[in-house]
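Escalation from tier 1.

The customer reports that the assembly of two entities below gives different structure tokens on two consecutive runs. Tier 1 could not reproduce it. I'm attaching the input and our single run for tier 2 to review.
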Amino acid sequence: MRTYLDAHKHSHLDALKEILRVPSVSTSPEHAGDVQALAEHLRNHLESIGLKKATVHSTPGHPIVTAEWLHAPDAPTVLIYGHYDVQPADPLELWETPPFEPTLKGDRLYARGASDDKGQSFIHVCALEAWLATEQRLPVNVKILLEGEEEIGSPNLVPFLEENKVWCACDTVLVSDTAMFGKNQPSITVGLRGLAYLEVHVEGPTRDLHSGVYGGAAPNPATILNDMLSQCIDLKTGKILIPGFYDEVIELTKAEQEALHALPFSMDTYTKAIGIEEVVGEPEYTVHERVSSRPTFDVNGLWGGYQGEGAKTVLPAKAGAKVSMRLVPNQDPQSTADKFKSFIHSIAPPSVRVNVINHHGGSPVVMDLTSDPIQKAAQAFKEVYQTEVFFTREGGSIPIIADFKRVLGVDSVLMGFGLNEDGLHSPNESFSIEDFYRGREVSARFLAHMASDGTEN
Amino acid sequence: MRTYLDAHKHSHLDALKEILRVPSVSTSPEHAGDVQALAEHLRNHLESIGLKKATVHSTPGHPIVTAEWLHAPDAPTVLIYGHYDVQPADPLELWETPPFEPTLKGDRLYARGASDDKGQSFIHVCALEAWLATEQRLPVNVKILLEGEEEIGSPNLVPFLEENKVWCACDTVLVSDTAMFGKNQPSITVGLRGLAYLEVHVEGPTRDLHSGVYGGAAPNPATILNDMLSQCIDLKTGKILIPGFYDEVIELTKAEQEALHALPFSMDTYTKAIGIEEVVGEPEYTVHERVSSRPTFDVNGLWGGYQGEGAKTVLPAKAGAKVSMRLVPNQDPQSTADKFKSFIHSIAPPSVRVNVINHHGGSPVVMDLTSDPIQKAAQAFKEVYQTEVFFTREGGSIPIIADFKRVLGVDSVLMGFGLNEDGLHSPNESFSIEDFYRGREVSARFLAHMASDGTEN
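Tier 1 run:
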């Protein structure tokens, strides 16, 4: 197995590069053709490595690709989930290499989606190929499900799961769309934050006005937007001021707190890695707690009036913002979005028209780290990386983890191969080639362990 | 004279259209060639109508065009000032006709600069042409000065005035760059607000971050920008909260207040004209006072993070805003800018880097409405429009009016031919053709009255 994987490093990397070249940006209507083309390419690839019934399923949005290998009657069934869509690449001018021309520099591969999630999910495809090529079988039953809408909130995945419950039935879901705790510090993610994402539009005058002629009497949507958003969070205490926001928040148990406090942390490394002067947020929580186990309020986008060079004395007709809130158990994305919406409308001055649009959301999730699949994943990591495995909580959201639990009744194993420095959603996203290579063996070993009765460790 | 002006309506309109076709946007470096070309075109035109020494003066920025006619030894000298540069046309998609293809619809001419200030300043050129064509002389000495940098704060005009004090010497400056009180309600502007215009840049992480991975601990420049700007004004009371902001503000005298209160005003017409639900600002002042005689704080532009379609969960690396403050006597643009800058730095959290850039500013100005030139301008208006003339204060800024006073020691006559509905600085800027035609006669008569000893009224 290892021989095969070693011999196929280059061909696997080349196959990944081919996938990264397709700009499958799910949020941009103009890239719909690229998303479709990549779905078909993946179907063909899954078929070519020996998986059965490789299929591109049409949805009202972007397609879902599935394939299977179900010839291990006494073994459990693993559903491997990944997504082949990516975030937009802008701001384009900040990329040092073209986002859709994967470029190897040192030990990292640069491209949009290199880590999130094309690179990570392709690791399992390589592991399946290695099993089928060397053993002509898989140790467990495997179903693979790749969606093209993760970055826009997976609107068609839950309907697909519900309509295909029988096919989707499994013992565990395997997902690689998270980060390791650090370089050579493999970890299994046992908690994820949820997400509520909204857009606020403020409209005042029917046209942009001269700020000299009307300033002082005409409502300014940009000023009003600033004012409303500033009322959502107290930056001094880090507390979110939306009424009822914390009502459903469960504080960490002492055990969970201790697990987080046990994780290594260097403030200096942390602030330097992202180039900030100092951290912000709730001082009574550690940084690990703030970014993984506490809810947040962030402005993700802001616009209004004149953004060009120089000075334009305009009183803008409208302004807008994208805002998101990360959620923790037991906050609900819909009810949190409703609270935000009600609050904004309650503080909106009568001089302007305010519209709040709810984008996708996702529920927070916490897994039992003592469960059999999670322990087996840790074992596979340990064998390949030759080091202890951390159990962490991540601040990001993978809403479908909660959906798998709800619709299929199973927990997921979050076997992350990314690193925090991968720059997900940022310019110059990259992925460690070494972890791409090693990940294939971790995946292959995990499948083998899943076939046995208990951990052998 | 009137016969000549009537006979040349079409040729004057065509000549104006030719000027409007040149996109002389002074704030955009890519339009520098257009600004230069228009300067040369104007020089040729001034020469062709019989003015002397028509010249394009190079400056470190855009050129200044001058011409003169100085053959009335016993008569006073009028310096006619105008500007041939325009504001940017964006947002382009909101124009119903191309901004640089002047289009006549009903009784209005649509184009960027139609009113501000190409249309208004060309009125005087037509009046001079009429005098020279019919009488082969002007009733007074005339110097004409057209600049190409008014919309970017006239950085090279004051140096020009100072270096050419002898040539610029005059008894009064005539400027048409303001609005009449209303349709068929001619007015002379006797007060203008000043301006301080700044840009705030907030920089946090060195790159855009994933808001899930870092949200809760990494400083968010967009959220912080919102918070800082919201601390500059209390939208409920309309009061500006920058420390010391009102220190130099002189309240209106009772007489000035009464003059403003005497102006007709309909709240319904006002709010409907700009499509707002209700006015905002300081409730203890009338709307006329708020927009002409009270200082303001407005956000003119706002940007940060993701502005595209859909959802992007980015924690932006930076955010920025353009802000401006309208000033009233005796506020000083530089010291007001300094107060804003100090305030922003004093409230900027240590987690981010904040940079405040000062754009151009201008001092507020108030004129004596009983002065001879202003009374003669009112007389000319009255003769042509056959109605009483209002004396108003405008909310906009023409910083060079204060500069003329300071450098040349003379007051200006603000003979506005615009209307509030002209849409200055907005898409679909337009100018009333009827006022363009009548304005030429007002200008011609004003020059005649200036030659006499006192008003004949």
